[in-house]
Amino acid sequence: QVQLVESGGGLVQAGGSLRLSCAASGRTFSSYPMAWFRQALGKEREFVAAISWGGVNTRYADSVKGRFTISRDNPKNTMYLQMNSLKPEDTARYYCASGSRPYAGITTTPRNFDVWGQGTLVTVSS
Asked: pLDDT per residue over 85-107, tens digit each?
């Protein structure tokens, strides 16, 4: 069974940093593009960052560009999201997701991801 488990969320003051992790199991993790999405209370889920299956290519939402960094450690089956200079508007539940096709190109569209984690809550206080 393919499973993704996020960790690393918490409460942080504005300007602070957090590092989210996404541990994968049940699939040849290194073959699939991955991404982070987030959903704030009362809002739609939105794309945050994506990374290619080999980890070479990345893409970011404009709202986090320059502050967040996505990376992956394929031998450890783990993906990360380093979040710096956090703002109150970054408050949301963050989800990692695995692309549905192996060796596919980088993607930011939710329908192209077939496995999702349960999410980890990030709260940024002002």
From this structure: 999 999 999 999 999 999 999 99
